[in-house]
Description:
The chain is mainly α. It has helices spanning about 5-15, 15-65, 70-75. The relative contact order is 0.05.
Amino acid sequence: xxxxxxQAIDLAQSLSLIEQIELLKTLSGIIQRTHSLxxxxxxxxxxxxxxxVSFGQSWQxxxxxxxxxxxxxxxxxxxx
Length: 80
């Protein structure tokens, strides 16, 4: 535990119950926003990386003739 965190805890313990509840609400909001931003950033980076890699592979296959005729793409697939 860092000294800053310990100081914050000590300060929180010195507050009245009403002030502690208000602090808890504020911290909860901060944590939710931070978590949401980190989740969005991570998801966006992963999706972008995957899309770029997938596109690059597909482009390379198309440019080198490693493709299938459209008529073959559905062979063996049973649609009920």
